[in-house]
Structure formats: C-alpha cells, structure tokens
UniProtKB/TrEMBL annotation:
It holds the Pfam family ERG4_ERG24. It comes from Actinidia rufa. Its EC number is 1.3.1.21. The lineage of its organism: Eukaryota, Viridiplantae, Streptophyta, Embryophyta, Tracheophyta. One of its GO terms (molecular function) is 7-dehydrocholesterol reductase activity. One of its GO terms (biological process) is brassinosteroid biosynthetic process. This is 7-dehydrocholesterol reductase. Keywords: Cholesterol biosynthesis, Cholesterol metabolism, Endoplasmic reticulum, Lipid biosynthesis, Lipid metabolism, Membrane, NADP, Oxidoreductase, Steroid biosynthesis, Steroid metabolism, Sterol biosynthesis, Sterol metabolism, Transmembrane, Transmembrane helix. The chain crosses the membrane at residues 12-33, 208-226, 238-258, 336-353.
Amino acid sequence: MGESKMVHSPLVTYASMLSLLTLCPPIVILLWYTMVHADGSISQTLSYLRQHGLQGFLNIWPMPTAIAWKIIVCYAAFEAALQLFLPGKRVEGPISPAGNRPIYKGHVAPSSTDSGSCGNLIIDFYWGMELYPRIGKNFDIKVFTNCRFGMMSWGVLPLTYCIKQYEENGRVADSMLVNTILMLVYVTKFFWWEDGYWNTMDIAHDRAGFYICWGCLVWVPSVYTSPGMYLVNHPVNLGVQLAIYILVAGILCIYINYDCDRQRQEFRRTHGKCLVWGKAPSKIQASYTTATGETKTSLLLTSGWWGLSRHFHYVPEILAAFFWTVPALFNHFLPYFFFYVVFLLTILLFDRAKRDDDRCRSK
C-alpha cells in the first residue's frame, strides 16, 4: 500500500486525520445554522452555544424528514443508474503503482488489484484501502462520490438556493444569479473535462477512504456552496454593471483553468508532439525507477500556461472561487472564512502542490 504512506510528520498526519474525522459534520451543521438562523454572525452562534452548551448544539442538529430522505435516496439512485447504464466512450486512466490501467466506461469498469493495508486502523479508514474500489465489476465508488453525487450536488444546490430566495423575497437578486451561474459554469466545465479528471491526483493516487467519500458527499456540496447559502437570507443588489464585471471575470478564470488542464492533457496524449500556443512545447524528460525496479519516463510540460509556474492552473481556480463568492460583498466575514478559496488555499492546494512536487522530485 505504498501510496498510503505518510507524506507529513506523524503529528501532522494524525492531527489532520482526527480533525477531519470528528469535526467535518459538526462544522457543516454550525455553518448552516450560522447562515440560516444567526444572521451570518459567528459571535451570535458562539453566544448561543455558551448559553445552551452541548444540548443546544444537539437541538440545532437538523433531523431529515422522511420526505428529505426519499429525495436524497432517489437522487443517489438516479445518479448511480446514469453512471451504470448511460453509454460512454472508453477512457483510460494512468497506470497505477500495481501496474493496472483503469478503464472507465458508461457500462463496464474492470476491478483493480491496487489495494492493501498499511497496518494502522485509523490510516486505513481515513485514507482508504482501495485505489479503485468497485461494487461488483460495474460500479466505481470514487466516480460516484466525486463526480456523480458530489459534483452534481454542487450544481443542484445553487439552484435550490435561488428557489428558496425567491420564496423568501419574491425575487432572485443579481448577486445570487452571478453566484449560481458561475458555479454552474464551473461544474459544466468539470464534466466537459471529466476524462482528464481520471489522470489527476484525486483518482490516480488518493485512495477512496473518508478523505474522498465523506469530503465529496458532505464537504463539497455543503461548504463550497456556502456563499449561496448566505445569500438566501442576505440578498445583495450589485447593479447590472458590477454583476456583469464579476460574471465575465469569473467565466474567464474558469476558461483559463480549463485551458491549463487541456494543454497538459493534450501534451500527455501526444507524448509532447503537439503545439502549445502555436509553438512546439518545451518539456522536462525524467527517467525514474519504480518500486518494482521498472524504469519509466515522464514528460513534464514547461511552456504555455505551464511555463508561467509549476501549478499555474490553481491560480485561475482560486480566482474563480473568489468571483463566485464576492457577490456577497464584504458585509459579513463568514462566506469568506469557510468558502472554497480559503479551503483550497490553506489546506487542499498547498498540500497537493507539495505532494506533487515531492513526487516529481523523487523522479
């Protein structure tokens, strides 16, 4: 289980794992309560908890109704059925550490031998024991949690926030429209580029434990859409000019993010025999030896967007997240504290960039 070895010190590893295992659901609930019932005020939420203690927290924990459960189950079943039965082109993922090349189809996906335990129960549960877990031969769990359920939920929730704001105020504010349109454009971009996603670190290296499944089922739909959750009860009128400026800037950032990934994907697909910005690409060729003693070669693109910085595609992604949050303006701190930019910048992308750099350096 070589890919599950610790990439940080044991203290940082266990602290981060235990924090996410225990704090992820309560943070999501407190975020929802603060946005919906505490006028977006963190101090008001903390005052409530000081007065009522643990029982107060238990009182605000939402209990889904039978209808809500039916909606969630039917939605999950619908997405699972689409994943299994809709026809799709054959897409190959990268070769795994065990020598497998996963194949993703609309109907059939093969099982994988990339599995194992590191001998630590907490790490096995958090990080996962399977790289490409499947139910039977056909149902890929990571595809379902990351894409079909998680990302599609990200697209559905902003629409429900628009509906809720209309019910509450009789209209949908331009700020909510900008937020929703940018998120829908981002999600559409993700699915347009989905075959490239199979070559990312999420799929190729990260196992499908708590980190993947819980994060994509709970954290992504709930926290990444928090600006829209805030705007439901705090509508902001931007005006036509400002709304258009923010919308155009956000769409431009999403396009640049897509074009960065498209350049790299085309470069890899053609083994460097392509044009980048009308010119032959510059590259780094690295030979390395795998854990099994096999010698392989990697090509790293160093021109186009990738000639500007090593992880340039993170820049427009962070900026896009900023532009779909800034319609909330700056009346409250909360949308910016939990939203996509802060999580990306402080946790996910710095860590991912370090892991990617370490992997390239080892080659």
